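Appendix B. Raw example, untouched.
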Amino acid sequence: MKISVIIPTYKPQAYLWECLDSLVAQTFSKEDFEIILVLNGCTEPWKSQIQEYIYSKMKGMNVKFIHTEQGGVSNARNMGLDAAEGEYIAFIDDDDYVSSRYLELLFEKTSDDTIPLCYPLSFVDGDDKYEPYYITSHYHDTPGKLDFIKARRFFAGPVYKLISKHVIGQRRFNSKFRNGEDSLFMFLLSDRFKFVEFADKEAIYYRRFRRNSATTVRRSRKQIIANELKRDWVVTKIYFSNPFRYRLKFYITNLLGSMHTMIAPIKNV
């Protein structure tokens, strides 16, 4: 198995079918990738709906459907990692979707010390207007391998890329965090890769913005500060556990990003 696609989902709506449709349409050989769908923290009617979709739309594909009563996206992703058989891991959020050549083009750029990156576009739910996602920079037009620090904005989370299973090893998402766990996970892995390489622009990750998603639920200033200080402490412990392998610049930018989160205006959603 070359690629394991991990999708955590909680009380999904119609957007999940759009996500799965985009995987059914992949040009990458169906024999060479598996889909691991983890339904967490809820049961019916979502469990039956997902089972029906798998039965009717995904025949002949390698699909693992995992159901757990335990909530939390980190827990769901960790369960997906434990079940993954692929050489490389692709994380996709259940309300996003990818272009038909996404897996094919990313896989062309894979190697153990290099993270292949895609071209992300964003859109507001219900709107057909697509725009380059904010993390996209002019580095996308630079051919060949780049120091990953130059594309560090792509490492705020595990999506938009393929990650070697060798890089991940036994490391997992910290389920004690409900916010900031994505960047914490990527920092934890950052001692095991050096470069990034952008795939062809046909490798597109479509990032959906919708109200009431886990990333838009409003938190108080006190909650934000407490969470960021806790996360900074964990990042600091990781960095000083092996300061000769972790990058000082990446550590500092993590702390600066956390500071920005603490002082930025709280948005109404």
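End of appendix B.
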